[in-house]
Automatic annotation (TrEMBL):
UniProt xrefs under Gene3D superfamilies: 2.20.25.10, 3.30.300.20
Short name of any one Pfam family annotated for the protein: OsmC
Name of the protein described by the UniProt record: Putative redox protein
Coiled coil: none
Alphabetical list of NCBIfam families matching this protein: PRK10738.1
Length: 138
């Protein structure tokens, strides 16, 4: 896997992935608008999307009729550099018809505790917790 980061000036960069996707990354001084997510925001989004992907795949293989998976993330960082994540809580909202709470719980547990490589890396510095809710759709 390869990526390229290019400085655009000030505190703004672009990231280009090997697959051809680009994103503006950056921070701003004071109340100025940010040009894009910060690097640490991207790390947190990476963990959430990695785990959401796992959950969708596991539930689809289990023939669960999912319609939506949302992961709400809440995190704390250390006050001093390198300001790593110290706590991450992942709240999963799984929507669908006739979903088994037991299967949803198992899918989330498997993702967070076994399959999601992003979560595994973050657990080196952060306490990662998770919970979920199942929403029945009509």
């Amino acid at each position: 896997m390869k990526s390229t980061i290019t400085w655009l000036g000030n505190k703004t960069f672009t990231g280009q992935t090997e697959s051809g996707h680009s994103i503006v990354i950056g921070t701003a001084d004071g109340n100025a608008p940010k040009p894009g997510p910060s690097a640490m925001e991207l790390v947190l989004l990476g963990a959430g999307s990695c785990s959401a992907w796992d959950v969708v795949e596991i539930l689809k293989k289990g023939r669960q009729q999912i319609e939506d998976v949302i992961v709400e993330l809440d995190a704390d960082r250390a006050p001093e550099p390198p300001k790593v994540f110290t706590r991450i809580h992942m709240h999963f909202v799984v929507k669908g018809r006739g979903l088994s709470e037991e299967r949803v719980k198992r899918a989330i547990d498997l993702s967070v505790e076994k399959y999601c490589s992003a979560t595994m890396m973050l657990e080196k510095t952060a306490t990662v917790t998770h919970d979920f809710e199942v929403v029945e759709t009509a």
